[in-house]
Amino acid sequence: xxxxxxxxxxxxxxxxxxxxxxxxxxxxxxxxxxxxxxxxxxxxxxxxxxxxxxxxxxxxxxxxxxxxxxxxxxxxxxxxxxxxxxxxxxxxxxxxxxxxxxxxxxxxxxxxxxxxxxxxxxxxxxxxxxxxxxxxxxxxxxxxxxxxxxxxxxxxxxxxxxxxxxxxxxxxxxxxxxxxxxxxxxxxxxxxxxxxxxxxxxxxxxxxxxxxxxxxxxxxxxxxxxxxxxxxxxxxxxxxxxxxxxxxxxxxxxxxxxxxxxxxxxxxxxxxxxxxxxxxxxxxxxxxxxxxxxxxxxxxxxxxxxxxxxxxxxxxxxxxxxxxxxxxxxxxxxxxxxxxxxxxxxxxxxxxxxxxxxxxxxxxxxxxxxxxxxxxxxxxxxxxxxxxxxxxxxxxxxxxxxxxxxxxxxxxxxxxxxxxxxxxxxxxxxxxxxxxxxxxxxxxxxxxxxxxxxxxxxxxxxxxxxxxxxxxxxxxxxxxxxxxxxxxxxxxxxxxxxxxxxxxxxxxxxxxxxxxxxxxxxxxxxxxxxxxxxxxxxxxxxxxxxxxxxxxxxxxxxxxxxxxxxxxxxxxxxxxxxxxxxxxxxxxxxxxxxxxxxxxxxxxxxxxxxxxxxxxxxxxxxxxxxxxxxxxxxxxxxxxxxxxxxxxxxxxxxxxxxxxxxxxxxxxxxxxxxxxxxxxxxxxxxxxxxxxxxxxxxxxxxxxxxxxxxxxxxxxxxxxxxxxxxxxxxxxxxxxxxxxxxxxxxxxxxxxxxxxxxxxxxxxxxxxxxxxxxxxxxxxxxxxxxxxxxxxxxxxxxxxxxxxxxxxxxxxxxxxxxxxxxxxxxxxxxxxxxxxxxxxxxxxxxxxxxxxxxxxxxxxxxxxxxxxxxxxxxxxxxxxxxxxxxxxxxxxxxxxxxxxxxxxxxxxxxxxxxxxxxxxxxxxxxxxxxx
Length: 931
Fold this sequence. Notes:
Layout: E1 2-4, H1 11-16, E2 27-29, E3 34-37, H2 44-58, E4 66-67, E5 76-82, H3 86-95, E6 109-116, E7 119-126, H4 129-142, E8 159-165, E9 169-170, E10 178-183, H5 190-198, H6 207-219, E11 224-226, H7 242-248, E12 252-253, H8 265-268, H9 271-274, H10 283-296, E13 304-305, H11 322-344, E14 353-357, H12 360-366, E15 376-380, E16 402-407, H13 425-437, E17 443-449, H14 455-466, H15 475-487, H16 489-506, H17 536-558, H18 564-596, H19 602-629, E18 661-663, E19 676-679, E20 684-692, E21 698-704, E22 709-711, E23 715-718, E24 725-732, E25 741-745, E26 748-752, E27 754-757, E28 767-768, E29 773-777, E30 782-783, E31 787-791, E32 798-802, E33 818-824, E34 828-836, E35 849-854, E36 860-863, H20 871-879, E37 882-891, E38 894-902, E39 908-916
Parallel strand pairs: 1-8, 3-4, 3-5, 5-7, 10-11, 10-17, 11-12, 13-14, 14-15, 15-16, 16-17, 19-27, 28-33
Antiparallel strand pairs: 2-8, 6-7, 6-9, 18-20, 20-24, 21-23, 21-25, 22-24, 25-26, 29-39, 30-33, 31-32, 32-39, 33-38, 34-37, 34-39, 35-36, 35-38
Helix pairs in contact: 2-4, 10-11, 11-12, 13-14, 15-16, 16-17, 16-18, 17-18, 18-19
InterPro entries: GH115, GH115_C, GH115_sf, Hex-like_dom2
Signal peptide: 1-25
Organism: Sphingomonas zeae
């Protein structure tokens, strides 16, 4: 059995908790401690004491009853309270504990062991109620209780003795004052699970569910909730038990951009009784409607969302222009502030207020909407992880400050992503770093959908909000520490690598986007962009996902039994789900491609797609059966029933009338076309598939091969088990002879043509043409003072960003370039692609421009900025790219250079690509496996 002591807490966990590891002091054993909850107005400390009692019991302790009088304490007593509590103040005086370090603090605590009058005390004193609660949850976490002990079934492990060092320490103040989550799009997980499994008596999301949400928020040190607000859910204030519960947990209640003044319009505004929700026609009715809620929430710790949108998540009714909307909003905000002051009995400036600049609300603000300086400006991402706006230097002076509303889950155009949490941690760090650096530090709220399966990403966001120092650490290190906390140090590194590969593979296309259709209006699936030519890009993606799933399954086989459910929820289901959907879609597209080639393997690919779909169904059923059915109804593999998730119609093809074997795109290599091309001096590999036209078992062997080439197999058999094909790899050693490779398939010779080109003499570090294409990662450039490297970000695991403080410039002569050297061997027309991330200008008065020059040519200006919801923006967010292209009618072979100078701050380059005429089309470069 293990022994829990804070004195041996890892430095990594201490960092995540915002602590320093104290010097070792005498042990204080908590195995049989009493818990004293110093009385407060709402009973928050008692809830914290009850939580700690459960945690100690789960660890194998036998805590005594929770008491409120120290005379009822046993020989060891854990005292939980705020610095304002007379009980706490008296004990602190008697024990010589100085509480001044947390005086006037926000959500801070002191924890210290002491001996007074023969009793041992562990004093947990918060500067406020949440500070005391965080002191409790941090203690539990340090003793081995994961924040996800209930929500992800990370069962605490029992121990013989529970003890800590008694040394005192003081917690840090949070970096961001208000840190919260938005429960949203709950229709396919949280609400049906709550209604049918967790709280069937209520039949909806109610106090029982919110109590679990609030407890999780405590453990993650979040303090603000935007409650579930879809029409399937009971409005938060519609259940009389919700608001008092929030007060007991000291949770700040707010509401989204669509719900001003804490009102859930979709469920609470009855048009039959109240009329249309149109401020231009019935302003007083709407003001009275808001007044009802403000009266009801008097005394509730709340953050009131200001402004006005439509009845649900759309523009306000009754106006159609930005100018008209701006005028209405100024009137609305003025009335809302007067209402708050009148109803709450205090100046409006003392009431936390928020203007969420979402879609047309940002457009109205940018068009000149005047807001009082004490209203917090909340900037939003574009629903796909890229902040649409940052505070200007003047806006940073506003006393109301700024904040961020960010999405990890989204319903809407151009496509939903409601199923798996695949936003890359490096993107979260980058965008929230931009927010932090431009002083958006008052409130951060993240859309977590149904909470599951976005557990890790939600914690990462909230950890960054609590301790902004984490912005300077690699996402991998945070992820590794997270996995160590759930599964132990031994497996943490390999699990972190699996999940980073999972995020990498989703970077160029999220699983939900693999149907290549769009929503609103819903479009049917389209052929995948990964199957544009010979199918090899799709094959590589399937293989990468299958390898990842195999690796995750191998780790899962080593995970102890008490962590099996947790591993399935946090790792295995997301990995297998993404792999399964990609395999199903891409295999079906390959089947159609290969049927056109009249390959016998076409039906085998249909069978593989069918098996992948069956695997998704089985995996989802397994998820909903975990922990004895605890999560039944939580996981839905087809949210909103979009075409990408639907089981396809399964095609079938009759055997081809052609006979014999073939390789390549069209079934034969012809002359100098479709030749596998290598570069002399550069070892490389190329895929080769040998296949049958008819479903007949046929032996094959290598009949002749040049000295510089080798094949991954010298012989084999095309048979039913392999789909009457064999995928091979042709290796070039970089120095030997290259020429045709002859295979004998049955009695038929099959020739694979190959050649090697001679590169020009170039400087070291020069990129060389390969298959009529050159890809130059951003961080392979030589760059000057205008640029900074952003590790881990983008398709190449590193991006180049124009500095955020860079002034806008009129010409390239004012800046310093990033330059890439490259060399071509083919004389042809070409396109030069500058591939950036689809970030947005720092403020709307700017563009997102760069000047580019090829060799000694003229500078040309390109602008990567997009208009909201334009077709170009849609393509950008679905691909995680913003591409600007320079067409080149002719391009000479030899050495070249491309230079790029940023003209606006924040432009973030992923890579530069030169694509020569005749190159096979690719959807995206594969993320490298090695990290």
